[in-house]
User: What shape does this take?
Amino acid sequence: MPDKLYVIVESNGGEIRSVSREVLSAARGIAGELGLTAAAVATNADAASEAAKYVTHVVHLTNAGLIPTPLPEDAAVVLAGSSPLARDLLPYLAAASAGCYLGDCTALRVEAGVLVAERPMLGGKAAGTFAFEPDRPIVVSVRAHVFAASDPPGVSGEIIEQAAVESKGIEVLSSDRAAEDRRVDVTEGDIVVAGGRGLKSADNFAVLEELAGTLANATGGAVAVGASRAVVDAKWRPYEEQVGKSGKSVAPKLYFAVGISGQIHHILGIDRAQVVVAINSDPDAPIFKYADYGIVGDALQVIPALTEAIKSA
Amino acid sequence: MKILVFVKQVPDTEALVEALDDSSLKVEEKFEMSFFDTLAVEEALRLKEKHGGTVTAVTVGPERAGEVLRTCLALGADSVFRIWDEALAPVVTDVFTDSLSVARVLAAVAKHLGFDLILCGKQALDDDAAAVGVMTAALLEIPFVTAVTSVKAEEGSIRVKQKRDGAEREIKCELPALLSAEKGLNEPRQPQVMKVMKAARAKIDAMDLAALKIQADAIISTVKPVSFTVPDKARSISIIEGEPADAAAELVRRLREERQAL
Ligand SMILES: Cc1cc2nc3c(=O)[nH]c(=O)nc-3n(C[C@H](O)[C@H](O)[C@H](O)COP(=O)(O)OP(=O)(O)OC[C@H]3O[C@@H](n4cnc5c(N)ncnc54)[C@H](O)[C@@H]3O)c2cc1C
Assistant: This one.
């Protein structure tokens, strides 16, 4: 009888991913409500030892390669935080075990003893609440900031090492980590400072980087830089930073839209932000309809002033 | 090289969506081929032009979905197949697609047609699920690489690039395999007028589950939307006036005091 809820725990450059910690923090509660035991599958040793502070049973997958990893036989539910790896792994596991898969959920809870999830539909124009076919494994990923991270409950779980099944026919020839790789992913930022064409040039993004650095120092939180599609298309910023319909959907506590006009395609990526601040020189820019606070002005004057105000506050 | 391309018809990105009540959604009837699929079609055509072979486009969907196949023909696909069956109606609706059901159908089509390479988009622009391609590869037990930004065919294998978590990886993948297309892979061509006219007259083949030897009970709804909302994204704005330094200081104060956001 499958009686476990497994959390997939990943790390990125030594540290456990913040979204993995969020899901681990929620796992015991959800497992309890479903009558299951929380456990974890970790993709490296660091992730495994961190996971063992939250749950009693941890499978450390050694040589976790590009994919095939069978679903543990006792898995009733598999939960992961949204990530590129989860997007490859979870549908794979679900298909191989005839399970139910729903990715990138924006809410997950237990109702009348069963899991229900929420997720955007139709390119973000609508949102749906979803039910899963009973008696099948449920494989779900949830986005960053859906659950709050909490400190470990002080468990010291058992770690079992297990070799992942080799992925056949795939060989990674090279992997170049770009200079920016240690940055906070835009989906994982507690604060996101995003810039658009109103910044006028790639070089001017330096003022946003400085604001981001200052905010990180002042709040101690994760601060990411984001971009509109127009500036990604202009190659001012990498596609990884694009926020919106054809980029990433973010849910930070605070989102700055700087020199971004606020077309619906961009708004679709920020509607789960708690607070939106818009800075734009055009008082009629649509972004002001979708923001909580606004300053009408030249970004190149307002942003340095904001950086100073945060430093001196 | 025998290439299959999986394409999906999705509501146009400008199509209006309305919630009739909390359990039904209405989508304006304007459709297009999902953006990432157009990149997959283009890459398939380029591979064929360079190395020879055939390009076959496949979609799962009702009659209207045949339009995306017509587009594939106009672009230069050799043949196209639309799969539809009454048994699919509950799992492939105007508003939601059950990924596993579609993957089972596509895996059966791929086996039926035979292939060296399958190309599809990284995700569909309506549900953004990014699941059907991976699931199909899992069911076919073939290697796959998602979100590729460059594809180079070699003897019996394929070399691709993938950007992920800030790293660019180069991956060698043995054939047969499945790849999904990421933005930046290529710039899709425009169809030639003559081909558009010919495609407009083409008869689009339709296949049902029996033709693919799929049992109707293989099609189950694994995940089902039970209620909908069309959220209002507007917020109520407070404009902060003043010279940059004053406005900035006031913004910081209000973010801190009113929202505990700093
Ligand atoms: C299918 C589809 C998908 C899309 N997906 C996305 C997506 O994922 N993400 C996305 O962002 N877009 C997306 N778009 C594009 C979107 O429609 C807009 O074109 C894009 O967001 C515009 O980017 P922008 O706001 O930077 O540029 P613009 O629209 O050019 O706006 C620039 C803004 O800067 C302001 N400005 C100018 N000078 C200054 C100054 N000195 N100081 C302050 N402000 C100034 C202007 O008033 C203006 O509001 C998509 C479009 C389509 C069709």
Residues 2-219 of chain B form a domain with the Rossmann fold fold (CATH 3.40.50.620). Residues A 196-198, 228-231, 242-247, 259-261, 263, 265-266, 269, 280-282, 285, 298-300; B 13 surround flavin-adenine dinucleotide (CB under 6 Å). Chain B touches chain A through 84 residues (CB under 8 Å). Chain B has a mean pLDDT of 95.
